[in-house]
Design goal:
Length: 179
C-alpha cells in the first residue's frame, strides 16, 4: 500500500473521521429512565449499570436534557431498586393534536400561521439594528436569539455581531454590534 502526502507533508488516508462511531444513540426510554431516576434518588452507578453506559455518559446526558436535580451517590447506600420496565408504564402516552400517529402521511392538516409575536419581535429588532452603533448592545430572550442572528446576517450584512448569555441559566442573551 502506497502512502500519499498532502501539500503540507502530512500523510493522507484513513483518519478518525472515517472510523465507525461506537457510541449508541440515546433512546426515549433511556431519557425517561434518567428523569425518573433523578426524581426517585437512584444512584448514578445503578443507572449506569442498568442502562449499560458510563457514569460520565449518564451525567452528560442528564445535563444535555436539562434535567434539574441530582442522582444520588452510590457510596454507603443499598436498595433504591428501580426496574427498567417501569419506565414504559410510568410515562404518560403523548397525545397528538392532528392525525392518528407519528410518521404517518396525513392530508387536510392546516398549515400553521406565522406567529404575530415573532413578527412583532422582528420589527422591534429591525428598529434596534437600524439605530445600533458600534459598541452598543441589546438584550433578548433565548427563544429569539436565532431570529436576531438571521436578521443580522440577511438584512444587515455589513454589521458584525456577537452574542453572549447574560446569566448562567442562559435565559437571556446580549447582542453586541462589533463593526
Amino acid at each position: 500500500m502506497e502512502i500519499t502526502f498532502s501539500k503540507n507533508g502530512k500523510p493522507m488516508g484513513r483518519t478518525k473521521s472515517t472510523m465507525v462511531r461506537k457510541n449508541k444513540q440515546w433512546t426515549a426510554e433511556e431519557d425517561n429512565y434518567i428523569r425518573i431516576a433523578v426524581q426517585e434518588g437512584v444512584s448514578t452507578a445503578k443507572v449506569s449499570e442498568r442502562l449499560g453506559r458510563s457514569v460520565a455518559a449518564i451525567s452528560g446526558r442528564k445535563w444535555s436534557l436539562g434535567i434539574e436535580g441530582r442522582l444520588s451517590s452510590s457510596k454507603g447506600k443499598k436498595g433504591n431498586k428501580m426496574d427498567r420496565n417501569s419506565v414504559a408504564t410510568s410515562t404518560p402516552t403523548p397525545t397528538l393534536s392532528f392525525g392518528s400517529g407519528i410518521f404517518e402521511l396525513e392530508s387536510g392538516v392546516p398549515l400553521p400561521s406565522k406567529s404575530s409575536r415573532n413578527e412583532e419581535a422582528r420589527t422591534k429588532m429591525r428598529s434596534l439594528f437600524n439605530q445600533m452603533r458600534q459598541g452598543q448592545s441589546f438584550v433578548l430572550p433565548k427563544n429569539l436569539l436565532h431570529v436576531a442572528a438571521h436578521l443580522a446576517k440577511k438584512e444587515f450584512p455589513s454589521y458584525k455581531t456577537r452574542s453572549t448569555a447574560t446569566s448562567p441559566e442562559k435565559q437571556f442573551y446580549r447582542i453586541f454590534r462589533v463593526l
